[in-house]
Write a structure and sequence with these properties.
Alpha-Beta Plaits; alpha/beta; GMP Synthetase, Chain A, domain 3; seven-stranded mixed beta sheet; about 30% helix; four-stranded antiparallel beta sheet
Amino acid sequence: MPETTCVRVPRNYGEKAVTLLKKMGLLVPELRIHRENDYLFLPLMCEPTTDELNELKLNLQEGLEVSKRSFLEHRKHQLKINGLLVDQLPSYVLASLPHAIDFVGDIAVVEISPELEAYKQVIGEALLKSHKRVRTVLAKSGAVSGVYRLRTFEVIGGEAKTETVHKEYGCVFHVDLAKAYFSPRLSFEHSRIASLVEEGETIVDMFAGVGPFSVLIAKKLRNVRVYAIDVNPDAFKLLKKNVAANRAEGRVKPVLGDARQITKERLKESADRVIMNLPEKAIEYVDAACAAIKSEGGVIHFYEFSNTPNPTETAITHLTEAVKRNNRRLEKILLARIVRGVAPFTYQIVVDAKIR
């Protein structure tokens, strides 16, 4: 089991430490907190920066220590359906039950391994019984692929649908999982970026999808201008619907088309901030992001997938070199961290960078 960076805190500081680490976006929710004697070990997304470490020391005081150790994964969803399936499945199959469950509105999305294929309908019905708000259970039938970042699904329980309404941080999002990419696992990242935006800013959301970044920013701030771009016509329709549903008209401008073409032709040197949440290909669009940032500089939120031994450092290097090739200068790394694991030893990374 691989080791994870963690902080050790006295047990009496546990609740305060969890709250602070969640606020900072450092706590890994998929891993269990480990208790040992009078201390708790809390798993972190990445090594805390000097500023983050100073804030932790200031708030948690005595007993704070950064180290590495192995952690067990949470399996609470698996345990909820285990009891329902113990008499219906062979014992060797129970160990393979899915524990990663995404909830999008009233839809549950699971990954069914090959050894579970014959039992997927039984698993779907068990999930419906164990989660009363769920109306549909979808099994992933393939990887995210294509220009529109779509994947196929199979209904294994409940209503045959892929459309739902998802709520996140006070926003309402109309979603169709078969037609437009959406991940509830990025909810904290949506909130984190929105919390960084200041009144009066102009933001270019280059790969907006159904609008989770753009709409939340407009929901939090009254005096902003967000250009929400997406090339997928279905995502664009849902984006417009979500802008209206959250009363963000006037602050969010939905734009259908290729992000590079639109930023270079219509949004050159207009942005204080650019969001690049297309980790598969964002590196190919750094030229457009540099073109969109104002001449006096601004912030790029760059996302990338990495399976290197040092994923955050690799993403920083890729972004730094790409910015330099486009006659800009990376002035400061504001943040670089692991957003989530997407496969064994493969991570989604975010780099917040100030460029000139």
